[in-house]
């Protein structure tokens, strides 16, 4: 069994003379050695300052090989002269750890590369002989135990102008590894990371956390004897070792391990890379021109030893500057072995080192790496830090506050300047109110926004992410969706009602601004270009008001916005940062991440001389001018030197043809200067063509096909399904190729990216545009035809279903997917028909918003033709979801035209939509008249039996909203018998879907049963509805709407917990789909449930929110319901009869002027309020007084509602009549 050994220094007379003794822990002697070093030997000089010696003695053009050769010689010398007989004794004993005991005067030996000593041809470090540098004092004091979970704090500091490190890659790797340890292996671990904005103040606040931290992992820039943290403005803050130790003393009672990976030569690494490529680095990248004296003093040594001595913790520190890739591999392996596998620290480090070191050495793992990590402190000798078993703790920043954010991409290289500038703006005292990240398509704006959200979440109690609609889609409901996302994340914010009226929103601006000034909220608005005109103006002026409110301050909240277009008017406190190309140092970093270019840079490309390979790498990185996609294309050709040369020559030619000409030497200026975005795109198009020219005909066809597909169709299954049809359409011979094999070459050449988490093949917008252009018009038409036929067939398959039941979600997907192809083919009415059917299945605001732009285009294309009425009707149906007023105007125009031509069919279908609009806006009398009229119109038009039955159902639907439930249930039975006798499928003379008629009929029956409190009957009706919807594959939103109807019956039947589960699940769906109407209903039902539980105050809050949402959704019937319910909450839960009276009166008045159901209940409730109040003096004198009281609830606009429902005289007479009824009833015994 491995045991601990003790290696001790005696008789130390200087760095050249001392004696070693090696004993077992219990005292048994193993070996000793008299050290007598020749200070004139070059190997002694190297031993004293190994990194500096290698730097100035390894040939730049073959640095990797030369360093390895020098280290082998030095290692042999250390083995023979420094360790002597001790070395073989250490290897033979296979110790668990070696305690290297150094008296104070010999402290410098802790920083000599003892592990480099070669025994049996290999360094001591690779024999897994872990040396732990210790003083000659006693053992460490006891620490607080790990407790319920192991707490790890990661610090990743990269100040502005501090050089280039791939800290994000290390941070992401550690977060992924710890997440796996927690979620997959059941360990209780908490990881908190800080990157971008790691200030002393922020770090102090975290270290003051009362729980303390078990492990602190430090990675970033440094110089000998100090670390670089950040000032609040993002600038470098050099922290001396003593000061850093003092900071960590805040958590010393619990701290057991500190890992320090401070690179004090990042700029030198970039410079070394250029020198290795034969290029002179720019001024400022290089180290001083001559080597410094080898005796650097103790500054560098103090950090590790101070941490170990003053904090009593174990320290893993780097003796020499560490390379990013090696640091990542070492730390992830170390923590996995230590925290999950339970290995003691010395053994874990030895095993991790053997995993991370590569043979032969590379730029990513140079030969010096093997002796770079070192262990310090007596606690390290036997430290174990296995994370306890238990429920995994959610890791920060991947915390619940980030729910709804897209996942982080696995690779995020460079962008140091962008991220540090943006991070500085996010700092609490920056004076900025936000950040605009703008730039060309595909530049990485969204990735930068995500990075900011994930890395700064800890300093913001609330993080909101919202993606604006894609360009080309309708934005009518975009502001409402944004407001809903804000409300969902910010408790108490009531915004949805204010955005419905510009004046109300303007009045709310000061409150929002004060909130943003005094609270700490991070809002990220992605894809904002769809909200802007090409000139930078807001397409909807309310966006300018709302975003101006969120940024018009110098306080604590921040808005991060990404956009291709810069807003013309933006608060001066919003920092505008371009996200375009990478500077030279970051471009080199990305090039090393790409395998083809890395092989060239390392001189290891097959069949290419090392010098030629490096020259090609220099030209590729230089001509790419920091554009990430150009670098990827160059990488894709790097395996073939001839092909890469052709690509580079083409790039040089195109650059010369641009307005700016061939750019300056990229490495001389450090970053692109004066290069326009359109010039990059020209080079990108040409490089795309060159890369594609080398493909076989089959491979090029596949690449062009992917480019011609709509983005959402770039899925493997779609391409596999359509390729045989496309092959025939193109007239190609033989069988269609296997897609994965044919796309392997385009993927290898950087033209197509491997599918992401969503399954989509990634194609850069510039590459896709070039591919489409190169494909030619005939090829593009063939793709459009094939995909239109494919999605049309999928649509028909989904409608028919495999078992006779349609698949509703697929119907919607196919209808939307086919549309762009059909429009390019000018198949206007086929596209219109598919969209109409899809809208029947999914009438959500999101889907309708996607449909409005193509439907407008269709209506314009068929204007004046025989298809115009049909196109106008479908457009009106979509508009009814996003803009009811515009829809009604269009429908009435359509009816007027149809009447002139006696077109009863058009009059009938238009009347059906008008019935729904009138019903939803509270004009129930008009809705009933239209419904009855439609029955006659359909008969005159010769409609089929299903359509005629649908007309009868629509009439009953209006009647149920008018409160005539008994009449409705009496007629439902006969209609169901009539329905059972109809043919199972609709004929040519029908304009309705069979399933729709059936489900609406059952739903109307359920509504009537609810009014009559026949709860079991309601559940029976709704069970049939849900079964029908499930069988046809209805959308998630449609299913949630149906399932929601169970909640009222479950609650009244005493099944409260079942009702709660239904409501909570449905609410989640409604929020996700930004359905304001259904959210209002869900909140109202939740208020009812809380009332049943006896939580009166909670019910009051929920019903107030529900009322606000009802007004925002313009749900007139729902407004009356919530006014009535709020009155109940006020009287029963708050004891406020006067306020309750106002809301019961409001409900009664709305129901009276609309003819809605529930009027008698509201009158009775108001009479009861009057009995409980002081007397008639508490009754609002008139409608205006009533509105003033009711509108004390945020979001209520009762005066506007009543004005839209009836004229002033009608309102006055109705109100007076209601007051008379109420006062009479109040005077009667209860």
Automatic annotation (TrEMBL):
Domain CHAT: 169-360
InterPro entries: CHAT_dom (IPR024983), P-loop_NTPase (IPR027417), TPR-like_helical_dom_sf (IPR011990)
TM helices/strands, residue ranges: none
Top-rank lineage group of the source organism: Bacteria
Name this protein carries in UniProt: CHAT domain-containing protein
Organism: Planobispora siamensis
């Amino acid at each position: 069994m491995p045991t601990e050994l003790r290696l001790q220094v005696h008789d130390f007379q200087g760095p050249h003379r001392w004696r070693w003794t090696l004993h077992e822990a219990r005292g048994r002697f193993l070996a000793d050695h008299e050290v007598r070093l020749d200070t004139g030997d070059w190997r002694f000089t190297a031993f004293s300052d190994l990194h500096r010696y290698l730097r100035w003695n390894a040939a730049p053009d073959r640095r990797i090989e030369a360093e390895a050769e020098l280290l082998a010689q030095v290692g042999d010398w250390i083995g023979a002269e420094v360790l002597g007989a001790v070395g073989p004794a250490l290897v033979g004993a296979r110790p668990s750890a070696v305690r290297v005991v150094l008296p104070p005067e010999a402290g410098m030996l802790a920083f000599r590369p003892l592990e480099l000593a070669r025994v049996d041809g290999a360094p001591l470090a690779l024999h897994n002989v872990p040396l732990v540098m210790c003083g000659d004092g006693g053992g460490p004091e006891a620490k607080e135990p790990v407790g319920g979970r192991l707490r790890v704090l990661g610090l990743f500091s990269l100040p502005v102008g501090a050089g280039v490190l791939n800290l994000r890659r290390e941070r992401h790797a550690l977060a992924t590894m710890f997440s796996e340890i927690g979620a997959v292996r059941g360990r209780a671990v908490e990881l908190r990371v800080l990157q971008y904005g790691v200030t002393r103040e922020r770090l102090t606040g975290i270290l003051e956390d009362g729980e303390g931290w078990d492990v602190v992992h430090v990675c970033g820039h440094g110089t000998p004897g100090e670390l670089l943290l950040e000032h609040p403005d993002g600038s470098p803050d050099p922290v001396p070792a003593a000061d850093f130790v003092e900071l960590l003393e805040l958590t010393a009672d619990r701290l057991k391990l500190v890992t320090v990976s401070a690179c004090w030569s990042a700029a030198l690494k970039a410079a070394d890379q250029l020198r290795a490529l034969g290029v002179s680095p720019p001024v400022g990248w290089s180290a001083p021109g001559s080597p410094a004296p080898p005796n650097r003093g103790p500054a560098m040594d103090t950090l590790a030893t101070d941490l170990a001595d003053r904090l009593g913790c174990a320290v893993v520190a780097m003796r020499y500057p560490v390379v990013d890739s090696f640091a990542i591999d070492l730390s992830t392996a170390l923590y996995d072995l230590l925290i999950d596998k339970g290995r003691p620290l010395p053994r874990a480090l030895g095993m991790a080192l053997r995993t991370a070191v590569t043979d032969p050495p590379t730029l990513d793992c140079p030969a010096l790496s093997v002796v770079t990590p070192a262990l310090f402190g007596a606690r390290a000798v036997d430290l174990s830090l296995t994370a306890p078993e238990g429920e995994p703790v959610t890791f920060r920043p991947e915390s619940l506050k980030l729910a709804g954010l897209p996942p982080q991409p696995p690779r995020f290289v460079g962008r140091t300047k962008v991220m540090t500038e943006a991070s500085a703006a996010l700092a609490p005292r920056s004076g900025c109110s936000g950040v605009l990240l703008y730039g060309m398509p595909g530049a990485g704006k969204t990735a930068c926004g995500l990075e900011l959200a994930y890395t700064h979440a800890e300093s913001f109690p609330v993080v909101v992410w919202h993606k604006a609609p894609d360009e080309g889609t309708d934005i009518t409901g975009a502001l409402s969706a944004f407001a809903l996302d804000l409300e969902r994340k910010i408790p108490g914010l009531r915004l949805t009602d204010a955005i419905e009226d510009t004046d109300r929103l303007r009045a709310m601006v000061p409150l929002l601004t004060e909130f943003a000034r005094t609270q700490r909220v991070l809002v990220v608005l992605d894809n904002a270009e769809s909200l802007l005109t090409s000139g930078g103006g807001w397409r909807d002026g309310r966006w300018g008001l709302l975003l101006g409110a969120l940024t018009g301050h110098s306080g604590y909240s921040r808005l991060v916005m990404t956009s291709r277009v810069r807003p013309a008017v933006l608060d001066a406190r919003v920092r505008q940062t371009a996200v375009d190309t990478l500077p030279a140092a970051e471009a080199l970093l990305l090039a090393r991440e790409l395998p083809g270019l890395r092989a060239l840079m390392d001189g290891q490309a097959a069949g290419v001389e090392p010098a030629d390979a490096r020259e090609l790498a220099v030209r590729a990185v230089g001509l790419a001018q920091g554009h990430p996609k150009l670098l990827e294309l160059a990488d894709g050709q790097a395996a073939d030197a001839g092909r890469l040369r052709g690509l580079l020559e083409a790039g040089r030619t195109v650059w010369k043809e641009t307005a700016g000409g061939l750019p300056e030497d990229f490495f001389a200026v450090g970053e692109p200067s004066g290069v326009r975005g359109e010039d990059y795109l020209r080079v990108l198009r040409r490089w795309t063509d060159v890369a594609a020219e080398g493909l076989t005909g089959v491979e090029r066809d596949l690449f062009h096909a992917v480019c011609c597909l709509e983005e959402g169709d770039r899925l493997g299954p779609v391409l596999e399904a359509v390729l045989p049809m496309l092959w025939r359409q193109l007239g190609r011979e033989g069988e269609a190729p296997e897609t994965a094999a044919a796309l392997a070459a385009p993927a290898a050449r950087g033209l197509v990216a491997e599918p992401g988490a969503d399954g989509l093949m990634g194609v850069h917008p510039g590459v896709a545009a070039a591919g489409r252009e190169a494909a030619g018009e005939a090829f593009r038409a063939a793709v459009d035809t094939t995909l239109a036929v494919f999605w049309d067939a999928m649509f028909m398959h989904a409608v028919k279903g495999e078992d006779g039941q349609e698949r509703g979600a697929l119907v919607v997907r196919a209808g939307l997917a086919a549309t762009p192809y059909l429009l390019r083919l000018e198949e206007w009415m086929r596209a219109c028909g598919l969209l109409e059917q899809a809208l029947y299945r999914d009438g959500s605001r999101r889907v309708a918003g996607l449909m409005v732009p193509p439907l407008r285009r269709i209506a314009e294309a068929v204007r004046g033709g025989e298809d115009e009425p049909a196109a106008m009707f479908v457009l009106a149906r979509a508009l009814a979801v996003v803009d009811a007023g515009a829809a009604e105007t269009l429908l009435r125009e359509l009816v007027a035209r149809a009447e002139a031509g006696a077109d009863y069919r058009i009059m009938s279908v238009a009347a059906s939509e008008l019935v729904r609009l009138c019903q939803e806006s509270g004009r129930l009398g008009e809705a009933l008249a239209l419904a009855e009229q439609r029955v006659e119109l359909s008969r005159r038009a010769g409609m089929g039996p299903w359509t005629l039955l649908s007309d009868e159902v629509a009439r009953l639907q209006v009647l149920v909203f008018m409160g005539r439930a008994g009449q409705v249930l009496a007629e439902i039975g006969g209609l169901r018998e009539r329905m059972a006798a109809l043919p199972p499928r609709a004929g040519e003379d029908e304009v309705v879907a069979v399933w729709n008629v059936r489900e609406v009929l059952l739903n109307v029956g359920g509504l009537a049963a609810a009014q009559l409190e026949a709860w079991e009957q309601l559940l029976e009706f709704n069970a049939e509805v849900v079964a029908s919807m499930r069988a046809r594959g209805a959308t998630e939103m449609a299913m949630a709407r149906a399932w929601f109807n169970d909640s009222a019956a479950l609650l009244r039947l005493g099944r409260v917990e079942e009702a709660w589960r239904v409501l909570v699940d449905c609410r989640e769906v409604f929020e996700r789909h930004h359905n304001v109407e259904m959210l209002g209903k869900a909140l109202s039902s939740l208020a009812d449930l809380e009332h049943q539980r006896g939580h009166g105050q909670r019910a009051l809050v929920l019903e107030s929110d529900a009322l606000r949402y009802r007004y925002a959704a313009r749900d007139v019937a729902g407004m009356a319901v919530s006014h009535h319910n709020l009155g109940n909450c006020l009287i029963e839960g708050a004891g406020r009869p006067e306020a309750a009276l106002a809301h019961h009166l409001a409900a009664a008045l709305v129901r009276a002027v609309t003819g809605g159901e529930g009027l008698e209940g509201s009158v009775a409730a108001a009479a009861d309020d009057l009995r409980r109040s002081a007397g008639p003096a508490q009754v609002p004198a008139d409608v205006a007084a009533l509105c003033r009281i009711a509108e004390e609830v945020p979001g209520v606009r009762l005066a506007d509602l009543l004005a839209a429902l009836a004229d002033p005289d009608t309102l006055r007479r109705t109100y007076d009549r209601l007051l008379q009824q109420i006062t009479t009833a109040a005077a009667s015994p209860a």
